[in-house]
Write a structure and sequence with these properties.
Layout: H1 3-9, E1 31-32, E2 35-36, H2 47-50, H3 54-70, H4 76-79, E3 83-87, E4 94-96, H5 99-109, H6 116-130, E5 133-135, H7 137-144, E6 153-158, H8 162-171, E7 176-178, H9 184-192, E8 201-205, H10 212-229, E9 235-242, E10 253-254, E11 257-269, E12 273-283, H11 285-297, E13 301-302
Parallel strand pairs: 3-6, 3-8, 6-7, 8-9
Antiparallel strand pairs: 1-2, 4-5, 9-12, 10-11, 11-12, 11-13
Helix pairs in contact: 1-11, 3-6, 3-7, 3-11, 5-6, 9-10
Bound molecules: S-adenosylmethionine.
The site of S-adenosylmethionine has 19 residues, from loops.
């Protein structure tokens, strides 16, 4: 069944992403000299502790949905178009999960099974989780885009942490790795030189904290995208923000590229109070209609 038709038929089955109140959100991890350390890795990147939380799941399910509809459409002709995929804050290809986290992931993600878009994400992640691993955004995208082999997508992955970058380089040898997202605008500029326009452009902006500085950077990236491909290809950029409610996103317009939808996940957990995780979709006219049905299934609201 075409994914959009399937999405429409399941449109009313919006998942409730409210977890049970008794769930333990933080994993029990060994502490080394006062620092929490993830088993099986030398990396002390704080994202190791956010992996598999509710916001992470909402983000990854949305990313899989956008990539499936824009970069791997059911339309055979469109499937042949090579695209550009980028992440401004890439992290690692995958990370280990403690038993607590595996249990949390299963319970948080279970409601997604009732939707086409969510089921696709679950199918990909479940195999890894069953082995005690957790696929992060780059691996989910990499699996969908044939590990960025230059046939289906050219990928730009920005990551400041050297250990994470080494892991990314091993997992995705064909991707271009940048040490800092400050370098993204000029790298995108370079991709335009003398080449065919891409069939699509998808990006993920995923900093730890959404700040004024991040907003300014996003505006620069969107302007570059709009200048090169805004009128030529569908362009969609997913932005994730911890603590960002629907009304908290700054208004950023870059030509035809602007915010077209938002997602908000709020959890109330005993002892932890209320947490909000938000997502915002920046897209041009060519991308909006294509990704809309899948994201609506996941609880997104479009303006
Ligand atoms: C929230 S995590 C990304 C999670 C990942 N996108 C996922 O969904 O699995 C943020 C990452 O950004 C990296 N980072 C922080 N500042 C950065 C910068 N200026 N440029 C590139 N990466 C940065 C951190 O090292 C961390 O790995």
């Amino acid at each position: 069944m075409h994914s959009q038709a399937a999405a429409q038929s399941l449109g009313s089955m919006r998942p409730s992403l409210t977890p049970p109140h008794d769930i333990r959100l933080e994993p029990v991890l060994p502490r080394v000299a006062g620092r929490t350390k993830m088993p099986g890795t030398m990396t002390a990147n704080p994202q190791n502790f956010n992996a598999a939380n509710l916001g992470d799941i909402a983000k990854h399910a949305s990313l899989v949905s956008v990539l499936t509809d824009l970069a791997r459409p059911d339309d055979k002709k469109a499937q042949l178009s090579m695209g550009i995929y980028f992440e401004t804050h890439a992290f690692r290809p995958h990370c280990p999960l403690t038993e607590d986290r595996i249990e949390a992931w299963r319970r948080f993600a279970a409601p997604l099974a009732g939707t086409v878009a969510g089921a696709r994400y679950l199918e990909m992640e479940r195999i890894a989780v069953d082995e005690g691993r957790y696929l992060c955004s780059t691996s989910l995208a990499g699996l969908l885009l044939d590990t960025f082999d230059g046939w289906r997508a050219r990928a730009l992955l920005c990551e400041r942490d050297e250990h994470c970058r080494d892991e990314l380089a091993r997992a995705f040898p064909a991707a271009t790795l940048l040490e800092d997202c400050d370098r993204l605008a000029s790298a995108l500029d370079g991709m335009d030189a003398g080449s065919e326009p891409p069939g699509w452009v998808v990006g993920l902006v995923d900093p730890f904290v959404w700040s004024e500085a991040v907003s300014r950077s996003v505006e620069i990236w969107l302007k570059v995208l709009n200048r090169h491909w805004g009128m030529k290809a569908p362009v969609a950029v997913l932005c994730f923000g911890y603590g960002m409610g629907r009304g908290d996103w700054p208004s950023i317009n870059a030509g035809d590229l602007r915010q077209v939808g938002t997602h908000e996940t709020r959890i109330e957990a005993r002892g932890l109070g209320s947490k909000v995780y938000g997502l915002s979709l920046m897209a041009n006219r060519k991308a909006r209609g294509i990704v809309r049905a899948g994201l609506e299934q996941l609880g997104w609201v479009f303006g």
